[in-house]
């Protein structure tokens, strides 16, 4: 069986979805939880109506490997229009209530929740929707129904995944 290829790749489709949402709703404050290598933040720093970008990740090593300074340490990016953009990276857990993550127009969680243990997923749900309460949230997670299309014989698509849901399970959550 030939490996399944998505065109464009799935990760790019996820980013395009977020970019389309941003184009339609023009949020000023955006946070990416589980930002990992900050790929999404890098793509969003050029949108002129975004004034603040925040990334949070629990993996301090991945933030350091990419040469990021762990924060809270904001820096200001000036684009050709001389618009100041505040970008802050935090080393921390998405299950903790942090006042720095209040007041956001959009919070993204791209391929994050499947890495959380059950107890952490419950805490995360309370923190995100109860404490942070952003105007909008975009969450993506692998769809277990598509796993049969992949040639690998592993249970999950990534060794760190704790679960992979069907569409119905995700909607129920």
UniProtKB/TrEMBL annotation:
It comes from the Eukaryota. It catalyses: small RNA 3'-end nucleotide + S-adenosyl-L-methionine = small RNA 3'-end 2'-O-methylnucleotide + S-adenosyl-L-homocysteine + H(+). The keyword Electron transport does not apply. Gene3D superfamilies: Vaccinia Virus protein VP39 (3.40.50.150). Its cofactor is Mg(2+). Signal peptide: none annotated. InterPro entries: Hen1, SAM-dependent_MTases_sf. Its EC number is 2.1.1.386. Keywords: Magnesium, Metal-binding, Methyltransferase, RNA-binding, RNA-mediated gene silencing, S-adenosyl-L-methionine, Transferase. PANTHER family: HEN1, SMALL RNA 2'-O-METHYLTRANSFERASE. Belongs to the methyltransferase superfamily. HEN1 family. This is Small RNA 2'-O-methyltransferase.
């Amino acid at each position: 069986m030939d490996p399944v290829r998505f065109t464009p790749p799935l990760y790019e489709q996820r980013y395009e979805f977020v970019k389309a949402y941003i184009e339609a709703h023009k949020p000023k404050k955006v946070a990416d939880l589980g930002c990992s290598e900050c790929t999404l933040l890098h793509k969003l720093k050029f949108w002129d109506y975004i004034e603040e970008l925040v990334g949070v990740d629990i993996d301090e090593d991945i933030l350091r490997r990419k040469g990021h300074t762990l924060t809270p340490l904001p820096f200001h990016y000036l684009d050709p229009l001389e618009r100041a953009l505040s970008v802050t990276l935090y080393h921390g857990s998405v299950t903790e209530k942090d006042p720095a993550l209040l007041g956001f127009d959009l919070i993204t969680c791209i391929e994050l929740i499947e890495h959380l243990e059950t107890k952490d997923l419950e805490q995360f749900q309370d923190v995100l929707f109860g404490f942070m309460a952003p105007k909008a949230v975009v969450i993506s997670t692998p769809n277990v129904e598509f796993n049969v299309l992949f040639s690998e014989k592993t249970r999950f698509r990534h060794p760190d995944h704790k679960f992979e849901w069907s569409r119905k399970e995700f909607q129920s959550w």
